[in-house]
Every structure is written in structure tokens, then in C-alpha cells.
Hints:
This protein has 6 helices and no strands. By secondary structure, it is mostly helical. It has a domain at about 60-160. Helix 3 (about 60-70) runs antiparallel to helix 6 (about 135-160) and helix 5 runs antiparallel to helix 6 (about 135-160). The longest helix has 27 residues, at about 100-125. About 20% of the residues are buried. The model has no long low-confidence stretch (mean pLDDT about 80).
Amino acid sequence: MPRPKTPEEQARYDAWQKERFGRGPKSPEPQQPDQIYDGPEPGSAEFGARRAAQAGIVSDQDRTLAMACHASALVGCLVPFGNLVAPLIVWLASRKNSSFVDEHGKAAVNFQISVMLAAILILFLAFVPALRIGAFPGLLILYVLQVVRVVLAAAAAHRGEDPNYGFGLQLIK
């Protein structure tokens, strides 16, 4: 007798088996899973990190690296062009490991490029006799604004928030 396809056929087949062989309906065969899980052991640290990454939760290491991208710009207070070179080095070294660090690194480098271009523009304006008097206060305001925005962005990165400098050119996308 062919395999039954409908519930009615299954009932007739079970009755025929019982009548012919004296046994009841067969128990259903256990179904094999379509997919075998080959990931980390549930409950392990690797499993927790993978689950957190899939949920969009940022790890402590990623938050620290993102904060370092922003805070390293303060090196520019001591070293010429350090405000651009230091965040660039931190970002290039760690951008492939985390999209969170990549996003913050781009924002930090873009902001520092914008600050550097603004400083160059202010210095060029210093050569115009009528605008010379405003060059030093302009650089001072730019410097204070840079330090404040860098500290705020580093704190936001440490909290796991998106980078937001408020202004700046988006040269690196």
C-alpha cells in the first residue's frame, strides 16, 4: 500500500495495519533540523559578545577606542598637527574591527580637518590689514571651541552614543 497523503488516507492505512498485523499506528519519526548550529557555546563569553553585537550593543573596548579617537586630538595642544595625526592613527589602526569605532574615527578626523582649514583661513585673514586685529581672537575662539567639542564627543563615545560635533566638513565618508 502506498504512503498516505491526507489525514483520511492515514486513518485508513492505520486501520489496515491494525487489522492485518495487529498493531496500531506508527509513531511519527523524529524530524531532523534543517540547520545545525555551529556557533559558540551558549553562555560563553564569545556567545555573549556575538549576541550583543547582533543586538547593536557596543562593547567596552569599542567605546574606549572611539573615545581615544576623539581625545587623541588633544595631542594637538602640544604637538603641531597632532590634532589631525593622532586621531587619524587611532582610527586607521582600529576601524576594521568595529563599525562604531569607524564611525567615530571618521567624525573625529573630519572635525579636525575642518578646524585646521578654519585656522589656515584665519591666518590668511591676518595678512589683510583691515582684518588683522580679529585674527588672534578668532584663533583663540577656534581653539577653545575645538577643545570643548572634542571633550563632549569623547564623552558621547564613552556613553556609546553617535558622534555629533555640530558642524564640520564631511570629507571622509
